[in-house]
Amino acid sequence: KQEVTQIPAALSVPEGENLVLNCSFTDSAIYNLQWFRQDPGKGLTSLLLIQSSQREQTSGRLNASLDKSSGRSTLYIAASQPGDSATYLCAGWNYGGATNKLIFGTGTLLAVQP
Amino acid sequence: EAQVTQNPRYLITVTGKKLTVTCSQNMNHEYMSWYRQDPGLGLRQIYYSMNVEVTDKGDVPEGYKVSRKEKRNFPLILESPSPNQTSLYFCASSLSPGISYEQYFGPGTRLTVT
Predict the structure, then answer these.
(1) Which residues of chain B lie closer than 8 angstroms to A45, CB-CB?
(2) Candidates B56, B103, B107; nearest CB to A102
(3) Helix, coil or strand: residue B85
(4) pLDDT in tens, A50-108
(5) Cβ atoms within 10 A of the Cβ of B102, count?
(6) Closest by alpha carbon to B45, among B35, B55, B32?
(7) Which of A102, A106, A108 is the best mutation test for B, with the most CBs of B within 10 A?
């Protein structure tokens, strides 16, 4: 059964620091990986989508990488700001056969202190 | 504006009273799905739909029904709600369930069943 784990579960950093969030999955049959941000009581906002054939994607201060062989993805946030405080979720597509779904990680709660 | 909308955003109801949560997308997406989010359990898929008139169970379908009569709408029906269905519900859509497409999420519906 595919499981997606995120480490750390919570992280508090001072403003300006660079940080890395980790995501690991148990089954290499992940076809792409998507990172989301969720603000308290709100929906999910898509940050980056890495396709299976890609190794990384960048958007502004965010960079996400995907290593299927090791079953890992990382989200790098440069020069963190208080507005980055949120829960970050990674999710992988399990596609084909009887299932077609996103499998979500457990999330990392990020707090950036001013 | 491209978006996924859900209604209502908040709902408090009593055990056994049938309810419907609507979901609509204006992006001509083929794939739609419903998730519930619970503390400590993360996001879990309830049902998904690959296209009109094609629906299938996700991980936690018990107590829920869906229909997909038109491409843009994917309502979630609780025929006889119970307190264990108290949760935060999200509808999502993507162009296709395939490997290249980003998932877009609605703002969420917070349901309380007393």
Answers:
(1) 105
(2) B103
(3) helix
(4) 887 888 999 999 999 998 888 899 999 999 999 999 999 999 877 665 556 788 998 99
(5) 12
(6) B35
(7) A102
Are B42 and A46 an interchain contact pair (Cβ–Cβ within 8 Å)?
A: no
- Whether the ω angle into residue B8 lies within 30 degrees of 0, i.e. cis, is yes
Q: Please return the burial class of A46, using the count of CB atoms within 10 Å of its CB with bins 0-12, 13-18 and 19+.
A: middle
Quick one: tokens of B78?
């609780």
Q: What does the pLDDT look like over B15-55, one tens digit per residue?
A: 999 999 999 999 999 999 999 999 888 899 999 998 999 99
A93/B99 Cβ within 8 A: yes
Token readout for A78 is 């440069």
What is the torsional sign of CA A72, B43, B26, B69? positive
Nearest to A114 by CA among A91, A89, A80, A90: A80
User: Using CA atoms, how far apart are residues B8 and B87, in angstroms rounded to an integer?
Assistant: 13
- The C-alpha of B79 sits at a distance from chain A's nearest C-alpha, in angstroms, of 24
Quote the strand ranges of chain A, DSSP E.
4-7, 10-14, 19-25, 32-38, 44-51, 56-59, 62-67, 72-77, 86-96, 99-104, 108-113
Pair A56, A74: CB distance under 8 Å: no
